[in-house]
Design goal:
alpha+beta, Creatine Amidinohydrolase, Chain A, domain 1, Creatine Amidinohydrolase, six-stranded mixed beta sheet, 9 helices, 17 strands, 34% helix, elongated
Length: 389
């Protein structure tokens, strides 16, 4: 645990301390940030308080009294509920405002790990609870140099696999051989495995109207054929099969034939323009040292699509934080599903993936953007034109 860095960050944010809490492993952020063992059982509530200054303090149930032994600081124990409340007040004194994994109005669901009752409990002790969102981003979403290299390597492998998948589609549809979404998905997963890549679910292979559903996934029972004249979207995400590696996440689109419809070409151009507008806004802001928040990046992409007259067909946020989980705990590029005011900070990565979803096809173009100390860069290949297969 990076205690000194955490305490400095707590001070900068203006909190008296940061209170971690868990029951039945509901808060994976706490386990990662504190560096707790993966095998830890948590059938009883535990609390770990890091003050802005001074020694941390832990509170555990006597049945699981050793749960937080790996962490520094004094430990207190409880059994009865009344004892828990008394000891909790003791470890938090003299704090008046603490950060927790809480988000007002659940505006940031990836941060809202603490239940409302526990927040009420802390407030009942005369302590204000504020969101730890900015702290979590700093200690959960920021990559190491090794993680950045793992992302780049995953990207190189996945860009190659993506090209192979579209080549497979091209060959089968040109030869009028049977092919379907499920077969392409299996091909991608087999290539992931042979390239030491892992994923939590997916990938998405969607034909025609299926691509109008941003979260469509084919199954062995439900899938569509792929043939000449079809539109095909592939959304794929994976990371190296090594500890602490981070994800690479992309979406590309194609047409099986020589002459895609003009509306497909038009929509692709608008989506790509929105993607480039958002990326350009980020790059200029980082280069000029202008602090920006996630919602502003969403505005840049969404404004481009709105001006083109397709705003009603862009039905999700522009992008999400990327980390050891494909949807990470950093700032999202969002002023649509939520209003994300978290700043973009160095050594974080996120997707930019605007989309337009028409009744019979949907186009999304997804890239990954990494923010360093002085600039922001795209970390993989970028689709500039609709692929003609």
């Amino acid at each position: 645990m990076r205690l000194e860095e955490i305490q400095n960050a707590i001070t900068v944010e203006g909190f008296d301390g940061w209170l971690f809490y868990d029951h039945h492993r509901r808060d994976p952020l706490a386990y990662r940030i504190l560096g707790l063992p993966n095998h830890l059982q948590s059938t009883r509530r535990w609390y770990y308080y890091i003050p802005a200054r001074g020694e941390p303090r832990a509170l555990c149930h006597r049945i699981e009294s050793h749960n937080l032994d790996s962490l520094p600081g004094e430990k207190f124990l409880y059994s009865r509920w009344s004892e828990q409340k008394k000891e909790l007040s003791r470890i938090l004194a003299p704090a008046r405002i603490v950060a927790m994994q809480h988000s007002s109005d659940c505006a940031l669901p990836y941060i809202a790990m603490v239940d409302a009752g526990t927040v009420e409990l802390i407030c009942g002790l005369g302590i204000d609870v504020s969101s730890s969102a900015n702290l979590v981003q700093q200690f959960e979403a920021c990559w190491t140099a090794t993680q950045f290299e793992s992302h780049l390597e995953a990207g190189r492998r996945m860009d190659g696999i993506r090209a192979e998948a579209f080549q497979l589609i091209r060959e089968r549809t040109r030869n009028k051989s049977a092919l379907n979404e499920w077969e392409v998905r299996k091909f991608l997963l087999e290539r992931f495995a042979s390239n030491n890549l892992q994923t939590d679910h997916g990938p998405i292979v969607a034909v025609n109207a299926n691509a109008s559903d941003p979260h469509y996934e084919p199954t062995s029972e439900r899938h569509s054929a792929v043939g000449p004249g079809d539109f095909v979207l592939i959304d794929m995400w994976a990371k190296l099969s090594t500890p602490d590696s981070v994800f690479y996440d992309i979406t590309w689109t194609s047409f099986c034939g020589d002459s895609p419809r003009s509306d497909m070409q038009n929509v692709f151009g608008i989506v790509a323009g929105a993607r480039d507008a958002a990326v350009g806004f980020v790059q200029r802001s980082v280069r000029d040292r202008i602090a920006i928040a996630g919602f502003q990046v969403d505005d840049a992409a969404r404004g481009h699509i709105d001006r083109a007259g397709f705003g009603d067909y862009f039905i999700h946020r522009t992008g999400h934080s990327i980390g050891v989980e494909v949807h990470g705990a950093g700032a999202n590029m969002d002023n649509y599903e939520t209003h994300d005011e978290r700043r973009l900070i160095p050594w974080t990565c996120f997707s930019v993936e605007p989309g337009i979803y028409m009744p019979d096809f949907g186009i999304r173009s997804e890239v990954n953007v990494f923010v360093s100390d002085k600039d922001a860069c795209l970390t993989g290949q970028v689709q500039r034109e609709l692929l003609i297969l």
